[in-house]
Amino acid sequence: MSEEKKETKEAKPSGGVSRRKFIGGTVGGLVVGAAAGYAVSQLAVPKAPMVAPPTAEEAATGKTVTFKVNGATTSIYVQSNWTLLYVLRDKLRLTGTKISCDYGECGACTVIINGKTALACMTLAIESDGKDIQTIEGLGQGGRLHKLQQAFIDNYGYSCGYCIPGMIMSAKALLDKNPSPTEDEIREGISGNLCRCTGYVGPIRSIQAATRM
Question: What are the DSSP E strand ranges found in 5-114?
Fold first, then answer.
């Protein structure tokens, strides 16, 4: 049967549009609408966490702690079993600190507490009361990236990039104490940060470049 005869046999909705064209147009409209809705949802990310006040039962097992995060004093209620990683990511929306192994092996959640590196997944938030915490979001100043961040970009020090925030924080703590480390000292400084992609060549090259910036 010819294509013309097939076309005439198709039921046509009002207005003379064939069923094939009608269905195609409807599906296309749904796809475009879904894509637009997704785009809007991504733009509507909340700027600040919405933290509900604790219930009486919760208050009996936790307390309000006050600490500095990237220079800003923050007070927040925490339960006794909440990790600092959970509070940073889920309560304060500082998602640059990554969650990976969640039991202290990979270093992806490395932050700096009182000048020393710490694994946020192994640190209880309730123990952070009164401390000074720095995350990857706090490195850049005045709209400019920290030299380590820029060096990792300029020297292709990343692949998937998931481990890089923690690695940069370890490197930051190292350079704060030793501005001109040797390659062996750099390797030791980031030895707690596991990377499956780069073979550590790019990160080491980037940290070396940052010492010259």
Answer: 62-69, 72-79, 110-113
Q: Report the DSSP pairing between strands 132-134 and 62-69.
A: parallel
| Domain assignment of residue 6, yes or no | no
How many domains in the chain? 3
For residue 32, the enclosing domain spans: 19-48
pLDDT band at 54 (very low <50, low <70, confident <90, very high): low
- The residue among 207, 112, 85 whose CA lies nearest residue 158 is 207
| Stated pTM of the model | 0.72
Angle between helices 147-154 and 164-177 (to 10 degrees): 130
CA distance 101 to 85: 12
**64/134 same-domain check:** yes
Paired tokens of 55: 């219930």
Sheet holding 116-119, edge to edge: 72-79, 62-69, 132-134, 110-113, 116-119
